Amino acid sequence: MEKFEQDRLEKLKKLREKGIDPYGKSCNGLKSLRSIVESYNEKGEESDNVRVAGRISSLRPHGKAAFADIRDWTGKIQLYIKLNNVGEDQFETFKLLDLGDIIGVEGKVFKTKTGEITIVVENLTVLSKALLPPPEKWHGLRDVELRYRQRYLDLIANEQAMKTSLDRIKIIKGIRNFLDSRGYVEVETPMMQPIPGGAVARPFITHHNTLDMDLYLRIAPELYLKRLLVGGMERIYEINRNFRNEGISTRHNPEFTMLEAYEAYGDYNSMMRLTEELVSKLASELRSDSNISFGEKTVDMTTPWRRARFNELLEEYAGVDFDDEAAMRQKAEGLGLETGNMPRDVVANDIFEEEVVPKLNNPTFVIDYPASLCPLTKLCEDDKRFAQRFELYIASIEIANSYTELNEPLEQEKRFIEQIGGKLDWGKLDDDFILALKYGMPPAGGLGIGIDRLVMILTGNPSIRDVILFPLLRPASRPPAEETVE
RNA sequence: GGGGGCAUAGCUCAGCUGGUAGAGCAACGGCCUUUUAAGCCGUAGGUCGGUGGUUCGAGCCCACCUGCCCUCACCA
C-alpha cells in the first residue's frame, strides 16, 4: 500500500542525491530484445555493445553481482550486473532499482553456463522509477476486474494480453491490406447522425449546443456508405466504431468496431467469396493450425466453408418446414418462445436462433433469409419470400452479415415505412437517403464484419472484453447516492 | 432488468462446525560475483468490498448496498 510507495520514494530520493534523473530521456539506437536473441542465435557472440531498454521483471541479487530480467513488447532478456564491470557507483544505482522500473542498458551479449542469452551490463540508465510494484511475477494478474480496469497491468503481467492486443492490430491491418489490394478505398462517414439508420438498435443520444440539435451516435455507417455508391465510389470500406445502447455481454460491448464494405456491380455471392478468402487468409497468417480452440469448442477453419439456405438449416436442425406455418408455430411454442402476433418470418428466426445457431460450429454461410427480416436487401429472384442475404457463423457467433443491396428507391421507401410502422420509435425515416437512391445507385454487394468478434475467434478469446483494450465498466466507486434526487 | 456465483495483505491464494488472521511472491534488514519461480537468516505488512443485524463472540450466519464474472432478455 502506502508502504511500498514510501520505500520507493526513498530510493527515488537517493537516486536524485546521486545526481541521477530517475525519469530519463529518449535513447537512440535501441534494439528490441527479441532481435538481440535472434541475432545471437544466428551469428553468435559479437564484440560490439548493444543498447536495449525495458522494464525489470525479475531480480536475482547475489551480493556483489546480480541477474535481472528486463522485458519489452517483443520479449525478455537476462541482464548480468557485476560490481567489477560497472564499478562502485553504478552498482549502487542498481541496488536502488526495483521490479517494474524501466531502465536502459548497454553491454555485450553472451551465453551463461546454463545456456541463457544474457547481456553483461557495462552501462546503466534509469528511465522510469516505478512507485508501485507490478503484479506478481509467477501467476501474473488474474483478477479479471483489475485486468480490465488497469489494462496496463494486464499488458505488463500477462504475455497473452499483449499478444492478443497485437494480434488484433495485425488482423485489422490485414483486412486493410486485403481490401486495398483489391481496389477498395477506405472512407470515413459520420459517427454523429441526425437519424440513426442502417440497423435496428437503440442509439446513444447526444446534443450539439450551437446547432441546438440532438444527434445520435451511429448504430451503423451503411446509409452513408451507400450514398457514396450513388456518388460513384465503386469499392469502399470503413473500419470504425458503432455504438448501440443495448445490453453488455461476452459478445457485446456498447461501442464496437465494424467493417463495412461495398462493391458496385457485385452481389452477396461476390461478397461471400470475398469473406471466405479474407477470413481464411487472416486465420492462416495468424496461426499455422487450421483448428482454433475457442473455450470448450474447437473450430476447423479449413475451406471451403459450408453454404446452406436458412430454411434448409431450419429443417435440418430444428425439424421445421418453413412452408408449414402451423407446425412451425407449434414448434416455437414447444421451445417456450412467444409467438403471439409475431409474423411467420420472426417466428422462424426465433427458432433458428434457438435451435440452429448453437450447432453452427465450423464456419457456415447461412444464405437467403426470410424477406421481411431484411429491409435493405434485394429479394431472391426465384422465391420472393426470401432475400439475398447471408450471415457467416463461426463457433455459433455471428461474424459477418451481407446483402445484395436494394437499389430501388421506391421499394426502399416502402420497406422503411413498413419498418417504422412496426416498432421503431426512435429516429425517423431517412428521406435524404431515399433522395440519394433516386439519383441511381448501382447494384452492389455489401458486407459487414464484426471486428471484435472476428478477433475473438482468430485469437481464441471467448469474451469480447479480452479483445477490447478498454471495455466499458461501471466506475469502481460511485459517489454516494444523493438523498434529494428522485 | 431477472437468475446464479465471486469479493481475505501490493499480487496469487488458504482459512474446518462461528472462538478473534495464514502461506507463497513482492517489500524491509543481513549474508552471498553464473543465477533463473536463486538460496539462507530475520522483520514488517489486514476497515476480511461497504452498512446494518443475529450471537457471549462473525472472515464464516442473515438483510441491504457496491463492483465484477456467468447466464437469460434486448442486440451484432
Per-chain topology:
Blueprint (H helix, E strand, L loop, with lengths): L1 H16 L15 H11 L6 E12 L3 E8 L2 E8 H13 L6 E10 L5 E12 L15 H6 L1 H7 L1 H23 L3 E2 L5 E2 L11 E4 L4 E5 L4 H9 L4 E9 L11 E10 L3 H19 L4 E4 L2 E4 L5 E4 H9 L6 H10 L9 H13 L7 E7 L15 E9 L2 E8 L4 H14 L8 H8 L5 E7 H9 L27
Parallel strand pairs: 3-5, 6-10, 14-15
Antiparallel strand pairs: 1-2, 1-4, 2-3, 4-5, 7-9, 8-9, 10-11, 11-18, 12-13, 15-16, 16-17, 17-18
Helix pairs in contact: 5-6, 6-14, 9-11, 10-11, 12-13
The structure holds one RNA strand of 76 nucleotides.
How would you explain this protein's 3D organization?
With 486 residues, the chain is of the alpha+beta class. The protein has 14 helices and 18 strands. The chain has helices at residues 2-17, 33-43, 83-95, 144-149, 151-157, 159-181, 222-230, 268-286, 310-318, 325-334, 344-356, 409-422, 431-438, 451-459; strands spanning 50-61, 65-72, 75-82, 102-111, 117-128, 185-186, 192-193, 205-208, 213-217, 235-243, 255-264, 291-294, 297-300, 306-309, 364-370, 386-394, 397-404, 444-450. Helix 6 (159-181) packs across helix 14, helix 10 crosses helix 11 and helix 12 packs antiparallel against helix 13 (431-438). The radius of gyration is 29 Å and the shape is elongated. It starts with a helix and ends in a 27-residue tail after the last helix. It binds one RNA strand of 76 nucleotides through helix 1, strand 1, strand 2, strand 3 and helix 4.
Précis, in short:
By secondary structure, the chain is an alpha+beta fold. It is built from 14 helices and 18 strands. The strands form four sheets. An eight-stranded mixed sheet has the order 6-10-11-18-17-16-15-14, sandwiched between helices. It has a five-stranded mixed β-barrel with strand order 1-2-3-5-4. Strands 7-9-8 form a three-stranded antiparallel sheet, with no helix packed on it.
